[in-house]
Amino acid sequence: MPLTYRALASSLLTSALLMGSSPLPAGPVQAQNAGQPRVAKLPHAPDQVVECEILIVGGGLAGTAAAYESLRMGHTVCMTELTDWVGGQLSSQGTTALDESKEQRNQLFYSRGYKELRDRVEQKYGELNPGQCWVSASCFMPYDANAILMDMLKQAVAKGKGQLKWFPHTVVKDLSLSRDGKQIQNVVAIQHRPAAGTPPLNTEPLSAIIEDAYTYQDSPRLSKSVIQFVPSQASGPATPGSPHPVDWYVVEATETGEIVALADIPYQLGLDPRSPLNPSSPVTQRDPYCTQGFTYTFAMERTATPQTYQVPPFYSRYAPYYSWEKTRDNLKTPQDYFDFVFTYRRLFNANPRSQQGIVGVPRPGVGDISMQNWTWGNDYRPGTDKDNLILTHDQLVASGQLQPGGWMGGLRTDALRQGENHALGFFYWLTTSSTDSQIDSRWKTPDPYNTLLQGLDSPMGTVHGLSKYPYIREGRRIIGRPSFGYEQGFTISEIDFSWNDFASDYYRQNLSSSAYLSMRRFLAGLFTVQTFADHPNPEQFPIRERSRIYPDAVGIAQYAIDFHPCMAQYPVEKPGNIERPGVRQAHGQAYPAQIPLRAMIPQKIDNLLVSSKSIATSYSAAAAYRVHSFEWSVGAAAAHTIDFSLRRGVRPYELVDQLPSQEPLLDALQMELQNSGNPVQFPNTSILNENWSQWKPW
């Protein structure tokens, strides 16, 4: 970033702070354990000790991107993944409908690896959108996403001469920290395989094996290997004055922030308290239980003849939930509604020349395959301490999971099970039901010309037909290190990039006068200093029409703030239940934004970088910073930051610890990212440019 911007940012921020206004107001911070640094507890010597320069925990899109870039730069990379597919939301979670902003897509302004992925999809099918879905410019098969990404990793090895050590069906169980608590020294994992005489993996849904997978002992179902990941001996251990101040690097790329919890790093979960930085929040105290809904996706195929279905034994429990969601003026018949949802995320169109439907794409035809990911369908949206999926810090302590050897994945198994049943019930509702929980039931009639695709060769690669892992929209989100202007720890907030109308009556009515003044002051952009005049009138403050520009940007992100809110009552499927009121206030358009390096650097640990959905964001920001291209960009940023740090003999936090003063090494890292085809800002990003009208994501 130019020195002129840094100097101006420093001036504005200093003025604000001297006048008693801090960009991050104080609030409750996740309580943390105290005591001696953690030492992993193993039941016996590891079955295998594996050396790595870089350990990537989690093979989702961010983890895959980090591996891709690291391998191209010649590193030895270990990557673990609970499932046997790479790609996360693009493969094992089944959401192969790319969530993209239209102008970013028009300009193909993406990280180089993400562009290669899109090109390979087009080469594979002869077109980018073989499903002719209408929600995206590209819908295709999950198993093909895994195959394409695995081939990209192989090609990255060939190009960069790196080495990939791939560990599917592997979960992290424990870790050890250095005596000063600042480095992860080793990570212990468990790899599982079917016990002799048992069916292949992916036969049962995740809830049936997850607790077994995190247990050291063999079971009648799973045989286990204990693996200890350690730093490569090639560079030698870090010592005072060493050119390598850390032994190795670990990348947190899990879907829910497992390493964040295990390493006892400050984080937040759920709804943030309403504040000038997150003014749309519906709560005044943090609610860690109301996270975004998760979804077990599935694929269904249109058939020529009607099918018969057995009523799932649990169906009556979930039936009161399902709905087309709302009436739509362009849908005139029950069949229109079914076709609308079927083609929404159609992955394969067997009849591309068939009659155009009501949303400009061909109607469903025999052989068409659709993936379901529907809010009032297979979304499962718990929001209380009785059913939340991602266990809070207090719940982890109470269950013993933060004790050495006690980690079991940090999820509520019963919530996974309910989500699985809920998804299977939705398929039955689609094909057989005549009821609707949200609109007049005359719009819902049975449609038996569909079958659930099941089997190891099915699009989801499972015998049961559901995705291997649920689509996760929100995980544990770190609180970055305190820095100038962020005394409580760095976090990306709602007002940093939202396109919302913050001058509306809602904010005057729901914020105190001082909070409203602070919010408008934070939004004043270049005119911040003028807002500190005597007797300020916030109604007269200008509101900048762009995102906050970060001096430490290492990647890009743009998508709308898109909520799938938790439900108000327990259980989710309770008749008459509603979404948690107020959560959607921030829902809507967002400006092109950046990924600051400070959002990836956790407190306490120097050799850990956080990627995926666990970077430092508020609840509202997480709702936008979660889609496919963002995950790729943040994974690429992690890889290049690690490579740069290893070559230059610095730790990532040292690249940003003097901000907003000039950071020459940070400038060099940003230049390397740009030159490698991994942009750190959108075209024409400038504090002077507020002309972003064509960039609305929806």
What does this structure look like?
With 698 residues, the protein is of the alpha/beta class. The chain has three domains: 275 residues, no CATH class; 171 residues, 3-Layer(bba) Sandwich (FAD/NAD(P)-binding domain), CATH 3.50.50; 139 residues, no CATH class. 25% of the residues lie in helices and 12% in strands. The protein has 16 helices and 19 strands. Helix 2 packs parallel to helix 5, helix 2 packs parallel to helix 15 and helix 4 crosses helix 5. The chain is globular. The relative contact order is 0.17. The N terminus is likely disordered.
Any descriptors?
single chain; 698 residues; alpha/beta; FAD/NAD(P)-binding domain; 3 domains; five-stranded parallel β-sheet; 16 helices; 12% strand; disordered N terminus
- The quaternary organization reads as single chain
Biggest sheet overview:
5 strands, parallel
What is the count of distinct domains?
3
Q: What is the count of β-strands?
A: 19
Low-pLDDT segments? 1-33
Query: For the residues shown, what is the average pLDDT?
Result: 94
Overall, the morphology is globular
In whole angstroms, how far apart are the ends? 29 Å
Helix/sheet category: alpha/beta
Residues in β-strands, percent = 5-15%
